[in-house]
Write a structure and sequence with these properties.
The chain has 590 residues and is α/β, with parallel strands linked by helices. It has helices at residues 2-8, 16-42, 46-68, 72-93, 101-114, 121-141, 155-242, 248-278, 291-301, 303-309, 319-322, 330-346, 397-403, 409-419, 475-487, 498-507, 524-532, 552-560, 573-583; strands at 287-290, 312-317, 325-328, 352-362, 366-375, 425-429, 433-443, 467-471, 491-495, 512-516, 543-547, 565-568. The chain has three domains: 2-153, no CATH class; 284-443, Histidine kinase-like ATPase, C-terminal domain (Heat Shock Protein 90); 467-583, Response regulator (Rossmann fold, 3-Layer(aba) Sandwich), CATH 3.40.50. The protein has a five-stranded mixed sheet with strand order 2-4-5-7-6. A five-stranded parallel sheet has the order 9-8-10-11-12, with helices on both faces. α4 runs parallel beside α6. The longest helix is centred in the middle third of the chain and has 88 residues, at 155-242.
Length: 590
């Protein structure tokens, strides 16, 4: 095999077709040398031997060029053309139809076919056939063109030499092809073994990656639960305290507490959502909401920070947008606008930050609204406009040190906008500010009077007459839930674990259950399964999951076991009230 690689090139450097071409050219040159030596032995004149010697040199030259890999596209036509012209020339030097040259035409056609692609076979065979017929025609028409050697008594020896040479050449080519095919087969077997080995390694790597991804998801779920659970109490109590007529100085402190806790929650949501987007499992909600209320909520969250930096916050809503109620994922839209406004406030030292919403187009059942956040901040350099949308990327390290942040906000915002059917656009100039904008198609809808009840209005008692069982093992979170639900007029009881929740449900008469998922003794999932599998008519009671988890599989299981809805902790009071009212529609709210 080493000798074969030296003669026709190694498999690592040449394709099998290239090696066949090299071998064919080499054997053509060797065959001509054989014929040249035979010609000397039978006494052929120099007028024939010298052109044959020149041909031998040319074919060896073509061989060496081909073996280097140069002129790959040109080598084949050069080899075939030169061989055809040479044989046509020797037809007239070697006794025409009565000489051995007709055998060379057959051999030349055979060799030419071995070095071209299948689609050229008919063309090559036709070319050699027509060339032979043309030579025969010229011989018949102009007999004087053919050099005859009738007096030479060694014609039979020339035929014998030619026949033996052709036989040896064809045998050599068959042996070569067989060796080449065996060589390729061996390489394919080795490659196949390598592929099997790589496939096994890939499978192991996949299993390891899946284990790592599962471990990451479980870690995020645990961390989410452990962080969100106390954060629910912080946000909930700050909300309640702000509605219990605090002194002006206390109200200021509570605003600071609210702003900081909501920023922490926003950071946690960004990290968790980034993980969900990565694996393509972020689920968009579809619920009615007021655009006006959403915009007001976003701007109010940053009012204190803007006042602290002495920059102006401006909210612009056209009348067509202000009065629109639409369907979509209000939570995700709020998250996007919060990220954009937060960045605008963060990177603006003087001037203003403006949030605007304009109606671009509207049909009978859909409104296309353009949301824009503009600032007069530091701006973004041209060469960083694309990079800032990459995960964990900021314009430069100095910005990260000065302003902080994870670099996740814009990456997540762009993906969320895409999931909602829009595209986040950026226009910016260094030193003059930035503008982020996107259009969203939002279906139009109407909110019912009950659904539009305000969580802020603790005196309206929108849940008057509703009896709720809250399964919550965390005493502080139980207190927060009690403050909200009692404030809205509901009566409630608290179960400290799933087992107690099942017992209280069976003995009581409740309109709805708020079920925490992670509890001691019996968790919320198991408690729900036992309630749903009961033959008691009360088994179809609405059960809303209260979850601080981020595990996507857990969210899917919530619906599979028969829970009606889930509310993420820390919960939004508006969301909690809206969903409780939705599932207690038939209960008297006197």
């Amino acid at each position: 095999m080493k000798l074969l690689d030296r003669l026709v090139g190694s498999a690592a450097e040449h394709t099998v077709n290239q090696r066949i071409l090299n071998a064919t050219i080499l054997f053509t040159a060797i065959f001509m040398m054989y014929g040249w030596v035979g010609g000397i032995l039978v006494g052929q004149p120099a007028s024939i031997l010298i052109p044959i010697a020149i041909n031998i040199c040319v074919f060896f030259g073509i061989y060496f060029v081909s073996k280097t890999g140069k002129w790959r596209k040109a080598i084949r036509p050069i080899y075939i053309t030169f061989g055809l012209l040479s044989i046509c020339l020797f037809y007239f030097y070697l006794n025409g139809i009565n000489g051995e040259v007709p055998l060379y035409f057959i051999l030349g056609a055979t060799l030419s076919v071995t070095v071209v692609k299948k689609r050229y076979y008919m063309f090559i065979i036709s070319l050699w056939t027509l060339s032979f017929l043309a030579c025969r025609y010229l011989e018949v028409t102009y007999p004087e063109l053919v050099s005859t050697d009738e007096a030479n008594a060694v014609r039979s020896v020339e035929f014998l030499i030619s026949s033996i040479g052709i036989l040896l050449l064809i045998t050599s080519i068959i042996v070569l092809f067989k060796n080449l095919l065996e060589n390729e087969k061996r390489h394919l077997q080795e490659a196949n073994r390598d592929l099997h080995k790589a496939a096994k390694e890939l499978e192991l790597a996949k299993e390891e990656a899946e284990k790592a991804n599962k471990a990451k998801s479980e870690f995020l779920s645990v961390m989410s639960h452990e962080i969100r659970t106390p954060l629910n109490a912080v946000i909930g109590m700050s909300y309640i305290l702000r509605h219990e007529n605090p002194r002006p100085d206390q109200l200021e402190n509570l605003k600071v507490l609210k702003f900081s806790s909501e920023n922490l929650l926003s950071l946690i949501n960004d990290v968790l959502d980034y993980n969900k987007i990565e694996v393509g499992k972020l689920i968009m909600e579809d619920a009615p909401f007021s655009i006006n209320e959403l915009l007001e909520s976003v701007m109010s969250a940053f009012q204190m920070k803007a006042e602290e930096k002495r920059i102006k916050l401006e909210l612009v809503k056209t009348p067509e947008v202000k009065n629109k109620t639409v369907t979509g994922d209000a939570t995700r839209l709020t998250q996007v606008l919060n990220n954009l406004v937060s960045n605008a406030v963060k990177f603006t030292e003087e001037g203003k930050v403006k949030l605007s919403a304009e109606l671009e187009d509207m049909t009978d059942d859909e409104a296309i609204i353009r949301f824009t956040v503009e600032d007069t901040g530091i701006g973004i350099p041209e060469d960083f406009k694309d990079k800032i949308f990459d995960s964990f990327m900021q314009a430069n390290a100095a910005i990260s040190r000065k302003y902080g942040g994870t670099g996740l906000g814009l990456a997540i915002s762009r993906e969320l906008v895409r999931l909602m059917g829009g595209e986040l656009e950026l226009h910016s100039e260094v030193g003059k500010g930035s503008q982020f904008s996107f259009e969203l198609p939002l279906p139009l809808t109407d909110l019912t009077a009950r659904a539009s009840a305000k969580a802020d209005d603790m005196n309206a008692s929108p849940l008057s007459g509703v009896k709720i069982l809250v399964a919550e093992d965390n005493a502080v979170n139980g207190l927060v839930a009690k403050k909200f639900l009692n404030g809205w007029g509901a009566t409630m009881e608290i179960a400290k674990d799933g087992e107690e929740a099942i017992k209280m449900w069976s003995q009581g008469d409740f309109d709805l259950i708020l079920m925490d998922l992670r509890m001691p003794v019996v968790d919320g999932m198991e408690a729900t399964k036992k309630i749903r599998s009961s033959s008691d008519p009360k088994a179809q009671i609405p059960i809303l999951a209260l979850t601080a988890s981020a595990l996507m599989e857990e969210e899917n299981e919530i619906f599979q076991i028969g829970m009606n809805e889930y509310i993420s902790k820390p919960f939004n009071p508006e969301e909690l009230l809206s969903k409780v009212m939705k599932y207690t529609e038939g209960v008297s709210h006197a």
